[in-house]
Write a structure and sequence with these properties.
By secondary structure, this protein is α/β, with parallel strands linked by helices. It has one domain: Rossmann fold. About 40% of the residues lie in helices and about 20% in strands. The chain contains eight helices and nine strands. A five-stranded parallel sheet has the order 2-7-1-8-9, sandwiched between helices. Strands 4-3-6-5 form a four-stranded mixed sheet. Helix 1 crosses helix 7.
Length: about 220
């Protein structure tokens, strides 16, 4: 039996609690780890290369994209962010499932590159709760807050492309649900036996299924 590893994408609107939930998941599941993104923005005080981010200038980042060495990427507020394929594949090869806290655009890129990835979308209990959480952060002007809420609704339209949805109402309950999802995914027969995945073939011819004795059960 294999001990499979796979990308775990966690997406959702700003303010839904992605960061704290991802950290909660990794703290409780020993075979997972948080992804480290590359970025073209300057390091902030206390940030360390290879721990907080992989810091690159724009020219190098664009060269990495052109060479196909970014598993996913996007431009946010004038800066490029992405997941280096070498980091992701090194962790997966070592048996660690990588938790990627990324937007839906990046999530769908990961799904195309790694069909065995698990995509989880986080939702608030209601849009009113999400608005209140964003207001409580007191980091956005009213126009910025409205744009965040509009984007949240647009992102939610991608839900059918994801595998699971988790509502973050009570933090510990949401973490429990994430743990249940990734543990169940790791135990899937096709992952344990090293098959390509659902729809990619059958177990026809397997000695476990091939009763050639001609005897009735």
């Amino acid at each position: 039996m294999l001990e499979p590893s796979f990308p775990i994408v966690v997406s959702g609107p700003s303010g839904v609690g992605k960061t704290v939930l991802c950290r909660g998941l990794v703290s409780r599941v020993s075979w997972t780890r948080l992804s480290i993104s590359a970025t073209t923005r300057e390091p902030r005080p206390g940030e360390k290369e290879g721990e907080s981010y992989f810091f690159m200038d724009r020219k190098r980042f664009e060269a990495e994209i052109e060479a196909g060495r970014m598993a996913e990427w996007a431009e946010v507020h004038g800066h490029l962010y992405g997941t280096p394929r070498s980091f992701l594949e090194s962790e997966l090869g070592a048996g660690r499932s990588v938790v990627l806290n990324i937007d839906v655009q990046g999530g769908l890129q990961i799904r195309r590159a790694y069909p065995g990835a698990v995509l989880i979308f986080l939702l608030p209990p209601s849009w009113e709760v999400l608005e209140q959480r964003l207001r409580n952060r007191a980091t956005d002007r009213d126009d910025q807050l409205r744009r965040r809420l509009e984007r949240a609704r647009r992102e939610a339209a991608v839900l059918p492309e994801y595998d699971y949805v988790v509502v973050n109402g009570v933090l510990e309950a949401a973490v429990d649900e994430l743990v249940t999802i990734v543990s169940g995914e790791r135990a899937r027969v096709w992952r344990r036996l090293g098959h390509p995945g659902p729809g990619a073939g059958s177990l026809g011819g397997s000695p476990l299924l091939d009763d050639s004795s001609g005897e009735n059960p």
